[in-house]
Amino acid sequence: MVTERRERSEAGAFGRLLRDWRHKRGVSQLELALAAEGSQRHISFLESGRAQPSRGMVLRLARVLDMPLREQNVMLIAAGFAPLYPARDLADPELLQVRKALDCMLRQQEPYPAMVMDRHCNLHMGNDAAEKLLTWLMEPHMAHSLPGPDGPLNLLRLLFHPDGVRPYIRNWPEVAGHLVQRLHREAILDGQSDATMALLTELLAYPDVPRAWHLPNWEALQAPVLMVELTKDELTLCFFTTITTLGTPHDITLQELRLECFFPADEATERNIEALRVSTT
């Protein structure tokens, strides 16, 4: 059985992945061995391909290295095992209770906007206030001129694309700079997957994106909340936003969901939210 598993897996793939993730996390073979309750010699043999891991060892190492569930599946496959964690569509019947919980949180955020996004900021759910906010910001042509119009609306493209909402974000450099640094960090966390790197490359190629944003700035402070100032049609809205993730998920889709809530940053915004609600009804 071990021989069959070795034949199914690409020679040396697991060892290369393990070494790459260890380097990403900045730990030595000895440090990894101690955290995983193993020996440095065994870690060395795993990385060189001289030893093959058990399924339990793969999962233990992945968890010590704090690997996302999606990348844990990749590690299992590289070692010749079946993937463990499913990646279901949010509309899957098995996720009905999760959708109900998200619906409840979205409704509780009214009359202020709240949105459910995936790791690439594709919009999957939103409350009525979020729909009104996007309706107010987006011109009729935007949904068709942005890349990927057939899929879910990507909020990062909407923010960065020259045909997007950039003109209406008064503090665009601060907002966009914060988000691109967040995406740099996401790229590192998910092992620089092709999808994440493609999105990051696309955003950085748009006009007027500072060259300094092409590299991650590890010294930049990530504030606990993000301030967003919007101005259009003589109406100004100032929000601060918070992001919530689901705790201890055992599904890739759920681990990658983000619930972003918008809160008024001043009394004028509280009043203007009501004016926006009326004008878009």
Quick summary:
The protein is α+β, with helices and mostly antiparallel strands.
Strand neighbour order, sheet with most strands? 2-1-5-4-3
Distance between the termini: 64 Å
Beta-strand portion reads 5-15%
Helix coverage percent: 40-55%
Which H/E pattern describes the elements? Answer: HHHHHHHEEHHHHHEEHEH
Topology (SSEs and partners):
Elements: H1 2-8, H2 13-25, H3 29-35, H4 40-48, H5 55-64, H6 69-78, H7 96-109, E1 114-117, E2 123-126, H8 128-137, H9 142-145, H10 155-160, H11 172-189, H12 194-204, E3 226-232, E4 235-244, H13 252-255, E5 258-264, H14 267-279
Antiparallel strand pairs: 1-2, 1-5, 3-4, 4-5
Structure description:
The longest helix has 18 residues, at 172-189. With 281 residues, the protein is of the alpha+beta class. Strand 3 (226-232) and strand 4 form a beta hairpin. A 5-stranded antiparallel beta sheet has the order 2-1-5-4-3, with helices on both faces. Helix content is 48%, strand content 11%. It folds into 2 domains: 2-78, 434 Repressor (Amino-terminal Domain) (Orthogonal Bundle), CATH 1.10.260.40; 93-279, Beta-Lactamase, CATH 3.30.450.180. The chain is elongated and about 65 Å long.
Features:
single chain; alpha+beta; 434 Repressor (Amino-terminal Domain); five-stranded antiparallel β-sheet; 14 helices; 5 strands; 48% helix
